[in-house]
Amino acid sequence: MTYSELRYAHHPEDVKTYNTEELRNHFLIEGLFQDDxxxxxxxxxxxxxxGGVKPVKKAVQLETIDDLKAEFFLQRRELGIVNVGxxxxxxxxxxxxxxxxxEALYVGSGNKEIIFKSSSADSPALxxxxxxxxHKSYPVKKVSRKDAEIIHLGEEKFANKRILNKLIVNxxxxxxxxxMGLTELVEGNVWNTMPAHVHARRMEAYFYxxxxxxxxxxxxxxQPQETRHIFxxxxxxxxxxxxxxxxxxxxxxxxxxxxxxxxxxxxxxxDGVSPNDLR
Length: 279
What we know:
The protein is mainly β and 279 residues long. The chain has a single domain, classed as Jelly Rolls, CATH 2.60.120. It has two helices and 24 strands. It has helices spanning 12-15, 20-27, and strands at residues 2-7, 28-29, 37-43, 49-54, 60-61, 77-83, 88-92, 95-99, 104-107, 114-118, 127-133, 141-143, 149-153, 162-168, 179-185, 191-192, 196-198, 202-209, 217-223, 226-232, 237-240, 247-250, 255-262, 271-273. The strands form five sheets. The chain has a seven-stranded mixed β-sheet with strand order 1-3-4-11-6-9-12, with no helix packed on it. Strands 2-21-18-23-15-14-13 form a seven-stranded antiparallel β-sheet. A four-stranded antiparallel β-sheet has the order 5-10-7-8, with no helix packed on it. It starts with a strand and ends in a 6-residue tail after the last strand.
């Protein structure tokens, strides 16, 4: 079963007036993983799709949705998948790809049948997915942890020591515009993407996981001089417009997956913001 919702884009002047409930309704994505179903949020920010798939008792197929007006989901789109649960399998037009926890799979446009399975119902796979429009088809490619580009960032004294794993980026796998990676905060560190930045050429979505039960994350968004915050729990995602910072601090360490789409594939294309300049 596939469930989907549509989110519109927002002018930053309008977002300044949103109360807590409105902010959460427009940008927060909850309940991504429901048994034996696909949950999708279609955003007008670069027509980016955020989703979750949790096969437990049966295989689950990625079906097209009305908003795409397409014969099949990847008719004009590309897809990135990261497994954040137990071991699982993704079948792409009959070919099988096994994904362990924190492994990724890129699926190019034109592939018609995408099926998700868990290796064990007792420890189901949790497939986090991102999708963006694609102008051509690139080959399917699995990206394991050993294939990732790993970068160590931050310092203990600033509580932002973290390990960045580039998974679906153009230096590893050719894509049209989709990029995805996984960042892990070292125990005792809580800040992500600080110092903050914006990149007007790309939108972004963050998905938070590995957060201990009972803990929370405050995700910061908005223009650098007009910031807002949203409190999130484990397995929540949040949309980040092109004009917005995307940063956060947790009450414990955690991991998160970043996904991007937009005008270019230059990972370093960002405009930094000094912590002292944030408002």
